[in-house]
Every structure is written in structure tokens, then in C-alpha cells.
Amino acid sequence: MKPLLQSETFVRIAAPLAVGVALLAVWEIGCRLGSIPVYLFPKPSDIFASLIKNGPSLLRALLITLRITLQAFAAAVVLGTLIAFMFVQSRAIEVSLFPYAVLLQVTPIVAIAPLIIILVKNTQLSLTVCATLVALFPIISNTTLGLRSVDPGLASYFRMNRASRLKTLVRLRIPGALPYFFGGLRISSGLALIGAVVAEFVAGTGGRSSGLAYEILDAGFQLDIPRMFAALFLITVTGVLLFGAMVGLSKLALSNWHESEIGAEA
Amino acid sequence: MNAPLPSDPLDPHTTRRAADRPPAVEVLSAEKIFANGTRALAPIDLTIAEGEFLTLIGPSGCGKSTLLKLIANLIQPSDGRILWWRGDFGHVGQGGRGLAFVFQEPTLMPWARVDANVRLPLDLADVPRGKADPRVSDAIARVGLSAFARHFPRQLSGGMKMRVSIARALATEPNLLLMDEPFGALDEFTRNKLDDDLIKLWWERKLTTVFVTHSIYEAVFLSTRIVVLAASPGRIFRTMTIDEPQPRSQDFRDSARFAAYCRELSTWLAEASLPSASGVTP
Questions:
Q1: What is the count of residue pairs from A and B with beta carbons less than 8 Å apart?
Q2: Phi, psi at B216, each rounded to 5°
Q3: Which residues in chain A touch residue B105, judged by CB atoms under 8 angstroms apart?
């Protein structure tokens, strides 16, 4: 057995955890010493208490935001991959359409969300559309890049063996694009969450189908600042978990062969 | 006044002159001018007989790789033509007339294990798994990598990767093997080892081989015939026949004859590199 401190995994988990605990402690002690009122800046313990007290309603809101996020993420992956496949079919298609993909990326979602919410009647659907638009671009650009980054030697090997377009796609282009695709997934998963929350803010829907953004808005109106932080905390945790899931997925798919994942096992 | 025939009387490579055997490839006044106007190859005539081990060697820019690519039908001649087994390229790949190309780089799929890499050409040719698998394991065994069949390329050394690349070529059971400086990136020790194995494979299979190299020693050790090319434009400078017992081994490398061949080839190469090289074949 190696001493715990020399274990890479232990350090990787323990070190950030220690920083987190230290920050929380400073925060808690600072608030107590400065007697900062809860409605200005709550202590971690206040936030935790609020998280427990408002648990059911926050959890319901979380599930709604999570559903929109996952729907949007799935839609972005499917759409983005399809668009990338289309782009690599011909330069003409890519050249004529890529600027619009960029346009989509640079337009702030806050600016077009009201329009989408007006155009799409179903609130859930309109929120999903907004989040999808935010999450789409990294998938398109990364997958296109990946599908184009074929090893030239292997490409001529396939050509020499008279491989069909389909076989070249399935056996060469797609496996070669996977590292790029997974890179896109990591970015896109976080963006889907951001898109969902931003869209919820703009929509500001109340009632039973409201997500975490509405919880934050509502808590703000009522000056229930700990609840605001609790909702924020849940959004952050969701984002981290999503990112972690993507890292795990990418490790699962690439650990055998790709440089980006090999170092982790050593 | 014929010189006495050496060694093994049953050996088709030494008892029958190359000209007596049917040609595998005929290069007929083929020349190559690239789109930018560079004349890579002046019209070349070259007949490669079945079972020959022919090496192309020459200074850089002499078009040896271009000639090999013409023979592989990877590029088309600007003028002249090339025949495979006395037919056009449509001939290749049918009726036991396979062609395999080994690149300078191993060009393996990093995401696929060794056996899957070796199976690739068979998969691309829609050979069913039941038929492909024994050929794959046989090819892997031939290059001595049976213990590494389930490894990924990144777990192998440079020499081992090159062996996988050769196994991939052997899996198609080719009749014509084209190799473009396959061991150029390897250290000398590994290269010699691979040369030893390659000549055994060639000998067992009577596999017509066209080989491009920079190394004089490698050319002399492997070849039954060496074609020295000169540059600008690329053309055949001289050819050397290496009529030595097969299969060759380290003994040949250590022999005085080997040194003599190398010395002569080295002189020719120096002459071929001169700007005034006449290009007249003696």
C-alpha cells in the first residue's frame, strides 16, 4: 500500500475538496464575525438550512431544468452531428452554411429568447429550443473538425483498397472524429444547462412547470436570499455532474487508444 | 562462356534468368509530369518478373517513390502505360493477382487492436469473418506478433508497428508487394531484423516485391535486382543483379561479396547523383 498522500487519485479528490472546505469555513466565519444580515449575504449554514427546508420545491424545479437541459443537449448532439456530417460531404455545403452556424453562435440567446418564446407556443418546447441553440455550435464545429482530421496515410490506404464512402465514414472518419466529438460534448453539456437557465429567466414562467431560474427570480422578489443561493448551488452541482459524466463517457470510449485519456491510467 | 550457376539447382530465382519468367509488371515508356510542370520521371521501361525482389534506389528527387506509386496505380502516368500480369489494372485483385502496399509509416488505426488492423483490408473487401480470421492470425504469426494480437498500436514499438503493417499486407495474400521505404524510420538493428524476416517471407511465398530504400546495405541484402535511378528528370541509371543463394542470412551480410556489391552500388549512386549523370544504361 502506498501512503495516502502519494496516491494520485486521493490527491486529485482531496486537494480540491480541502480548498472547498476552507473557502466555506472562511465564508461562514467571515459572515458571523461581520454580522452580515442574511438578506444581504447568507452564511453557508443558512443556505444549507434553506436547501433542506425548500427541498421538495427546489427538487421539482431542478428536475424541470434538468429535463430541458437533457432534451436540449440530446437535440444538440443529434442535430450537430447531422449538420457536421452534411458539412464534410462537400466543401460547397460547408462554405455556404458555416457562416450561419457562426451567426447562431454569436447571437446572444437572451436577445432571441423572447422571440422564440413568442413563436413557440409550448413553453417547455420553446425553452428547449433556446437551450439547443446555445449547445449546438460546439458539437457542429468539433465534429466537423474531427471528421476532416483524417490521417492522410490511412485515408490513402482506404482509397487504395477501394473502400466505399460509407465504409470510409464508418471505419475511418467516425472513429477518428471521436476525440473531437467528445471534446464538443464536454463544452456543449455545460452550455445546454446555461441555455436552459437563461431561457427560463427570460420566460419567467411561474406555476408548476417552473425551473430553477424561476426559483431564483421568485426568491429574489421575496428577499429569500438563502433560497436563491440554494437554487444556484443546485445549478452548479448539476453542471459539474454533467461535465463529470461527459469526462467519464469520453474516458470509457477513448482510454484504450487516445493520447488525451492515456495519461489518466498511468 | 557462361558463368557457372550458383548453388541450389531447384532454385527458380537463380537457375532461371529474370527474362525467362513471366512478367508481373511491365512499365512501358511511362513518364510522369506533375501539374506544376515538374518532370518527375522521364519515360521509363522496366519489366518486373514474377518472384523478383526488385529494389529502387537513388538520390532524393529521382522519382523512385513516384515510380512505385505508378506501379501501385496510386497515380496515373502522364504518358506511356503500365501492365499488370499483361493486363490493365482491372486485372489486379482478381484470380489471385493481389497487390499490397506498405507505406513508410505503419499507418495503423490507433483505435483498433492489432488483429482488427490486420483484418482491415479483408473487411474492406467484404471477406466474411469466418474466412478472414484464420488468415489474420496466420499473417500475425508470420511476422511474429501472435502474442500481441489483442494489443493496441500505441502499446507497440516502432518496429512492431511496422510488422503489423506488413502483416496487414500479407493478410490479403498478395502476389505483388510494394514497399515504400518501410523501415526508413527504424534504427539499424531493428531494420536488419526486419530485413531478415522480410526475405524469409518473400522466399516462402515467392512474392514479387518492389522495394524502395535509401540504404545501400538493405538494397544489396534483400534484392535479386537493384535499379539505380538518377534525378532531374528521374530515369533508370543502371541496374545491378545480385545473384546470391537464398534465403539470405547474416552470413551474406558478413561476406566479402556483400561488401563488394555495396562498394560498387555506392560508386554508382555517387555517379547517379552527379549533375552530369548521363542516364545511359550500360
A1: 43
A2: -60, -45
A3: 153
Q: How many CB atoms lie within 10 A of CB A36?
A: 13
Q: pLDDT tens digit string along A139-175?
A: 999 999 999 888 888 988 888 888 888 899 889 999 9
**Angle ∠(B80,B238,B185) on CA atoms, nearest 5:** 90
Which positions in chain B touch A179 (Cβ < 8 Å)? none
pTM given for the model: 0.78
Q: For the purposes of burial, counting CB atoms within 10 Å of the CB of A127, is it exposed (0-12), middle (13-18) or buried (19 or more)?
A: buried
Instruction: Provide, as residue numbers in chain B, all residues whose Cβ is less than 8 Å from the Cβ of A151.
Output: 107
Quote the DSSP letter at residue B29: E
Any CB–CB contact under 8 A between B103 and chain A? Answer: yes
**SS3 readout for B210-261:** EEECCCHHHHHHHCCEEEEEECCCEEEEEEEECCCCCCCCHHHHHCHHHHHH
Residue B5's CB is within 10 A of a number of other CB atoms, namely 13
- Which three-class secondary structure string do you get for chain A? CCCHHHCHHHHHHHHHHHHHHHHHHHHHHHHHHCCCCCCCCCCHHHHHHHHHHCHHHHHHHHHHHHHHHHHHHHHHHHHHHHHHHHHHHCHHHHHHHHHHHHHHHHCCHHHHHHHHHHHCCCHHHHHHHHHHHHHHHHHHHHHHHHHHCCCHHHHHHHHHCCCCHHHHHHHHHHHHHHHHHHHHHHHHHHHHHHHHHHHHHHHCCCCCCCCHHHHHHHHHHCCCHHHHHHHHHHHHHHHHHHHHHHHHHHHHHHCCCCHHHHHHHC
**ipTM over the 0.90 cut-off:** no
A161, A176, A262 member nearest B124 (Cβ): A161
| pLDDT confidence of residue A188 | 93
Tell me the C-alpha distance between A264 and A261, whole Å: 6
**pLDDT tens-digit map of A26-70:** 988 888 888 888 777 888 888 888 888 888 888 888 998 999 999
> What SS3 class is residue B141?
helix
